[in-house]
Every structure is written in C-alpha cells, then in structure tokens.
Design a protein that fits this description.
The longest helix has about 40 residues. The chain is globular and about 65 Å long. It has about 260 residues and is of the alpha+beta class. It has two domains: about 130 residues, no CATH class; about 70 residues, SH3 type barrels (Roll), CATH 2.30.30. Helix content is about 35%, strand content about 10%. InterPro entries: DUF5641, RNaseH_sf. It holds the Pfam family DUF5641. This is DUF5641 domain-containing protein.
Amino acid sequence: MISEAQFIAWFFVTAFSPWKGGVHERMVGLTKQALRRAIGRHLDLNELCTFITETEAVINQRPLTYVASDSLQILRPIDFLHPDPHLQLHVDSTHLNDPQFTPCPPSSRICILEKWRHTQRCLDKFWTIWHSEHFHSLREQQQRQLHNGPRSQLKRIPRLHEVVLLQEDKMHRATWKLAQIIDISPSSDGAICTAGVRTANGRTFLRSISPLYSLEIEGREGNMETEGTPVDKQIPNSDARLGKCRKKHNHPLSLKQDKKKKS
C-alpha cells in the first residue's frame, strides 16, 4: 500500500546472480564500513539524521566521469538530483571563539556549537575513511578488468590523454582532484612507472602511476588510439619479458634461477 501510494517501483536482480548490481552494493558496503568506523555508537537520533544527510551529500559528489577533457569538468551523481548544488557550509573555525558569532539562531549557543563541532569531526573522519576505501575500490575494479583471478597484482597503465583521479593526502572534504595524462615515457627496461599530468589550472608535473586512478565511468575515447600508437605497444616487449621471467622461475616463490641440466 505504501509503495503504491508513493509510486515506488521495485526492480530485482536475477536469482543466483550476485554479480549484478555489484557497483551500488559495493558502494553501500563501503559507506556502512566507514560509518561504523567514524561514529560507532556515539550519536543521538538527531545528530545521526544530520550526519547521514551530510554523508549522502559527500558520496553523491564523487566524480563519475568527465564532461570535457580540456576543462576537466566532472559529472557527479548530485548533478542529476540537484543541478548546480551548494551543499557545504564553509564556516571559518576562527570565528567560533567570537561570543557574537551564531551560525544559526540557537536555544543554547554552547550546546549548538558543540553538536556542530562533533558532527564536523565525525564527517571529517568519515571522509578520510571513505575517501581511502573508494580509491581502493577503484583499484580493485581496474585489476578485475585486467585479470579475473583472485590474486591479481597487475596495475592498469594509464593511457595518453586519459582523464584520471589524482590521489593526494589531506584533501578537503568532498574535494576531488582530476588530471589529464599528457606524457607517458617508458623506462630503459620498458616499464611505465611515471606519467606527466596536467591539472585543471594548467599546472603540469610528473607523478608515479600509483596515485593515478581511472574514473568510475571511463570515456569511450580512452580505449581508442590517440596518437596513432596502439595501447598494447605502450609497454614494449612486455609479453616477452614476462615470458622470460616465467621460464626462469618455475616456482612462484623461487628466487634462484634453475640450474641447467647436465647432459
């Protein structure tokens, strides 16, 4: 009755198909884990409702893909729900000690400020945990695309002109930094460990490929040849080097070369 009154339609995944709907199920799991680690059982009902609303805004501001690579403008889930939203209340913490400062008409100023401070601390802790876990989830997604085995240690090599997420320490809440790959230069042994990137403000610098993450929804043009060079040729002789390594080390834990059999 409630579903019919609210025009709620239910859509179910196919039975015995746990891989369907895995993206949003993974997101729900990450959010629950971050909530438990951030707040535990220390919030009352009103604080919890406020905190859940704030975390919903944080999660819905994660970048899905980019609109244009030249401007590095991102497309987020919140852009479908509330176009051009202003969700965060930026309050200078230096004003909190001012006795005339009131962020809202309170019944008890000290009580309101203390609750607000506590919620902000919980949100910052939630952001730190969820931000790190989301990057870890993106890395797992890239590894599954490369190899279906349970122990894949392969890392996806960023493509030239691809727009990626740049992981940095101590980023502000709901802040994501995007960059575009402008240069990929293999080392002397053919491995790609460093890439040149350009941020939205035009700054260019070198970064290791470790803090570079593909977006949740990759662009179609990322799979195409951009400079006339096939993607599989960006790592020269990679298959040959892997083949020699496998022949040299028959056992995965062996660190010594196999001795030649005496004739």
